[in-house]
Structure formats: C-alpha cells, structure tokens
Design a protein that fits this description.
alpha/beta; Aspartate Aminotransferase, domain 1; 2 domains; 7-stranded mixed beta sheet; 12 strands; binds pyridoxal-5'-phosphate
C-alpha cells in the first residue's frame, strides 16, 4: 500500500526533537498562548516575510476571523471559487456574508482572474483567492483589481505555506493571509492549528482580540469574539517543524518533477502546470484523467492511495443550496471536478514508490478505457 501521505515517516525524522519539546511544555505548567506561541509567531512571520502573525486554532478560524477583522458580514459579498475545501466558503457563511463564485482557470485550478471583474457589485467587499494544491494564484492581477475597485483581499493559503509568486510568499499579498496546520498540510502539527498574517498593526490587534473573547485586556470585552487560541504543545511542535519546511517543500517539487517525467509520454494523463515565476509547493500532485472514478477505484484495489480533491464543487453542495445555484454556472470547475485525481505526495516518498504509482496508474487508465468501451 502506498498512501497519499505518510505522517509516520515524517515523525521518524522529527520525532526525537518533538518529544523533547513537548515534554518540556508538559512540565512547564504553561499550556495556552505562552512562550512557544509567541516565539512561533515571530519565527513564522520572519519565514513568510510579513510583519505580524496571529496563531489560531485552525485555518477555518483564520478565514473566519480575517473576515470579522475586516468587518465583513451580513449584506456583503465575497468573491471566491467553488473548487476548494468547504472551509473557504463556510467562513464566509459564518459571518453572514454571501460567497460569489468565479470559475477556475483549468490549467492552474485557481481562480480565473479574467472573470473576477464581471462579478463585482456594489455589495462586494473582498476577493478571497485560494492557492489550491500549493499553487500560487496570479496575485499581480488580483491585487490590481482589488486596488481599482477598493476591495479587500484575503488569501486562503491553507495549502500553500512557503509557495511563492514572483519571489514573494503567498499569504502576504493581501490584507490578511490564512494558513492551516492540520496534520496533513505541508506544515502540519499534531492536532489542529491555524494562523492569520497581516502587515497591518490594526488588523493584527483586532484578530488578537477576536481570538480571545473579543477583548485585548483580560476580562474586558469589547465585542463578541471566539475562543481560538493555539496551545503550547502545538506551537512547540510547529517550531520544530518550521525548520524543515523549506527542505520538505523542495523535496515535494523534486517528486513532482519526477512524476512529470514518468508521465511525459502518456497521452491520457495530464500533469499539473505551473504559472510562470511561481514556486509551487505541491501540497497535492494532481493529474487529470479520463474515466476518473473507475481509475480511482482500480487504483485503490491495487494499493495506491489516490484521492479526489474535491468530488463536489461548493456551489452544488447542499450547504449552499440557499444560493439557488445550478449546474452549468461554472463549467471549468464542474468539468475539472470530474477529472482530477491526486497521487501520493509527501517529502519522504521514494522514487521506487513513485515508479510503482506511475506504472499502476498507467495500467489502470488503460484498463478503465477497455472496461468502459466494452
Ligand atoms: C485545510 C484547509 C482549510 C481549513 O483549515 P483547517 O485548519 O482544517 O480548519 C481551509 N481552506 C483550505 C483550502 C484548506 O485546504
């Protein structure tokens, strides 16, 4: 069995260090928003090249509190994509705003920047691009549109920590960038964790208050906040792992290049493309194939842990039925939902395993073709 991700193998490289740090936290008596959180906020801000980092309980909370900090709520519209994890639009729903969907560019799976302006209305407050699969969005165009229309930009960089657009880390272009440390993310902790980053002192302070019951001073509450604090154990783990993230991302890129090589003469398998001047970090290595569902099933039977991210676009999910959106609204999103398949990808995967994945996939694509034509 070759899994899509193998967290145990990563643990083998960082485990000793992690155990030492975690034990120290356990013995310290300080468990929430202590010295590790503070140190991690400084270290990750430096890594990303941004002034302020606010640790939170999850990536979902980062998106939620980013919207809150920008006073986006009922009656407001936020432009985003339907080809993403549900948390992106869930956060918009939590604050009472309305997601307005733009189709994707089928080459990058990210927001089609040419369609954004046609969706802007007097109610639009922000653009919320998602750097899906670790692939940077076209930030020059997005920032230019936002500037001309006086809109905020919140980046969902939950899958893209360390990815770069023109030499600058994604998540640092807009007003606020959101990251997740869910265990399977490129920088994952051993529980839940999240982060919001901003160059604005004002937005930093608002998010610091919102994450801790809406008050900057303990027991003085200015507004309704939430409880979204990172705990010291997770912060200590993240501090250890942050030292490895560049190396892990680099390895993922090497594995992506190797997959590309293995599939280069296979006409039925479309390999991922990269936008010029970007550093994609391959949170997922996602190919497009015909007869995807059948191939997926065959792969599972043959011990390859491939996954479909995501099988149903968000505009067609029950959760957004209240928007009354119909199939056909986002042709590229809907089409790609039926083609995409993500293959095993993690820093520790071996070339031998990648060869097995590639050979099995090529075989399954052929098998599915014959099965379906008879
Ligand atoms: C993981 C993820 C989130 C949510 O992060 P959590 O930490 O799981 O709450 C949001 N958006 C995208 C694109 C993600 O992949």
């Amino acid at each position: 069995m070759i899994p899509i991700i193998d967290s145990k193998r990563q643990y083998a490289t960082v485990g000793t260090e992690v155990e030492k740090e975690v034990l120290e936290v356990l013995r310290s008596g300080s468990y929430i928003l202590g010295k590790n959180c503070k140190a991690f906020e400084e270290e990750v801000a430096e890594f990303l090249g941004v002034k302020n980092a606010v640790t939170l309980n999850s990536g979902t909370d980062a998106l939620h509190l980013a919207l809150r900090a920008l006073d986006i709520g009922a009656g407001d519209e936020v432009i985003t994509v339907a080809f993403t994890f549900v948390a992106t639009t869930e956060a918009i729903g939590i604050v009472g705003a309305k997601p307005v969907f733009v189709d994707i560019d089928p080459d990058t799976f990210n927001i089609d920047v040419n369609e954004i302006e046609s969706k802007i209305t007097p109610k639009t407050k922000a653009i919320l691009p998602v750097h899906l699969y670790g692939q940077p969005c076209n930030m020059d165009v997005i920032m230019d549109i936002a500037k001309r229309h006086n809109l905020f930009v919140i980046e969902d960089a939950c899958q893209a920590i360390g990815a770069e657009y023109k030499g600058k880390k994604v998540g640092t272009f807009g007003d606020i960038g959101c990251f997740s440390f869910y265990p399977t993310k490129n920088l994952g902790t051993m529980g839940d964790g999240g982060l919001a980053v901003t160059n604005s002192e004002f937005l930093k302070n608002r998010m610091i208050a919102l994450r801790n019951h809406g008050g900057a001073i303990r027991y003085y509450h200015d507004e309704i906040g939430i409880n979204s604090r990172l705990d010291e154990i997770q912060a200590a783990i993240l501090r250890v792992k942050l030292k490895y993230i560049n190396d892990w991302n680099k390895k993922r890129r090497e594995h992506a290049a190797f997959y590309n090589e293995l599939f280069k003469d296979v006409k039925d398998i479309e390999t991922p493309k990269e936008l010029d001047n970007t550093y994609c970090i391959y949170h997922q290595y996602t190919v497009k194939i015909p007869n995807r569902d059948e191939v997926h099933k065959l792969l599972q039977e043959n011990g390859i842990g491939a996954m479909i991210y995501y099988p149903v676009p968000l505009h067609l999910q029950k959760v957004h039925a209240y928007l009354g959106l119909k199939e056909g609204l986002l042709p590229n999103t809907e089409k790609n939902t039926k083609l995409v398949l993500s293959l095993p990808m993690f820093a520790e995967i071996t070339q031998e395993e990648q060869r097995t994945v590639a050979q099995t996939l090529i075989k399954c694509v052929e098998l599915a073709k014959n099965k379906i034509s008879v």
